[in-house]
Amino acid sequence: MPSPRLLPLLVVLASASLLGFAPILVRLTETGPAAAGFWRLVFALPLLLILTRRPGGEAIGRPSKWMLLAGLFFALDMTFWHYGIVMTSVANATVFCNLTPVVVTLFGWLVFKDRPTRLFILALALAMGGAFAMAAGAERGQGSNPVLGDILSLSVALWYSGYFLAVKAARATAGAMRVMFWATLAGAPLMAGAALGLGEAMIPATLAGWAACVAFGLMHVAGQGGVAWALGRLPTAITTLIILIQPLVAAGLGWWIFGETLAPVQALGGALVLAAIVLGQASRKPDRDGPDKLGPDTKTGAAPEGTAPA
C-alpha cells in the first residue's frame, strides 16, 4: 500500500519544478520585467477566484491589512526579481532569491529575540560566501548588467520575506486561497504602475508572448497552490528541502533555452547557497507553544504559500 506521504511528495516535487519555469517565462513574455509580473497576476486572478468560491470554500469577504501588505511586498518582490532575471543569469537570479528562509530566521532573531543556533550562524556564513562566489564568477554576456542583476536578485530575499511574514499574519484568520486572491488583486495594479512608470512595453508583440503571459498566470496558481497544499500534509523541513530543486530546474532551463553556462566557481557558490538554505531551515527552533509557526491553518487546514518566489 502506498505511503500516505507519497502523493504530497509528488505534488510538491511537481510544483517546485513548475516554479522553476518562472525566470524563463519572464524572458518569453515580450514585455518589460514589471509588466510580465502584472500579466502573471492578471491571468492568475480568474482561477484564484474560482478556487476561492468553490463549494465549501470560505467567503471572499474584505481583505485584511496583512493581505494588502502581502500584495505590496509581492509586487516589490516580482519587480526587483524580474529585473534581476534580465540583468543577470537565470541561475544567479533564482539562487539568490532563495535566501528568503535565512532572512526570515534572521528577522525572528532581531525582532522576536528568537536566538539562532550555531547551525544557523554556519548557514549564514555559507550563504554569504556562496552569494559572493556566484556574483564574482558570473561570465560576461549573461544578462545586460550581471552585477546590478545580482544585487537586485539578492534584495528579493528581503521583499519576499516581508511577503511571507505578511501571509503568515493573514493566515491567522483566513485560508490560503483567500489570502492568495487578495494579495494577487492588490499586487496587480502596483505592478502595472511600476511598469508604466518605468516606461516598459506592456503588450506582447506576438501570440507566443501572450501564451507565455497566460502560462505565467497558470504557473502562479498551480506552483504556489501545489506547494501550499503539500505544506498542510508534509513536515515543513521535508517540503522546503524538495523546493530547493527550483533553482536547479531554472539553471537547467537557462542552459537549455538560453545557452547560459555555469563557471565552476558559480556552481560551487550555488551549492553553498543551497546548503545554507537547508541548514537555515534545519536550525529553526519549533514554536514554544505548539507546531511550526508556518504550519497549517488551524481553521482551514490549509498552509501558507510556498517559500520560493516565483
Distance between the termini: 35 Å
What's the SSE pattern?
HHHHHHHHHHHHH
C-alpha geometry: globular
Pairing-aware structural class of the strands and helices? mainly alpha
Unreliable segments (pLDDT under 50, ≥5 consecutive)? 287-308
Topology, number of strands = 0
Q: How much helical structure, as a percent, in the residues?
A: over 70%
Which descriptors would you attach to this protein?
single chain, 310 residues, mainly alpha, disordered C terminus
Provide the fold topology.
Layout (H helix, E strand, L loop, with lengths): L5 H14 L2 H7 L4 H20 L12 H23 L2 H8 L2 H13 L5 H19 L9 H25 L5 H22 L9 H25 L4 H8 L1 H14 L5 H19 L28
Helix pairs in contact: 1-10, 1-12, 2-10, 3-4, 3-9, 3-10, 4-5, 4-8, 4-9, 5-8, 5-12, 5-13, 6-8, 6-13, 7-13
Task: Summarize the structure in words.
This protein is mainly alpha-helical. 70% of the residues lie in helices and 0% in strands. It has 13 helices and no strands. It has helices at 6-19, 22-28, 33-52, 65-87, 90-97, 100-112, 118-136, 146-170, 176-197, 207-231, 236-243, 245-258, 264-282. Helix 1 runs antiparallel to helix 10 and helix 1 (6-19) crosses helix 12 (245-258). The relative contact order is 0.23.
Short description:
The protein is mostly helical and about 300 residues long.
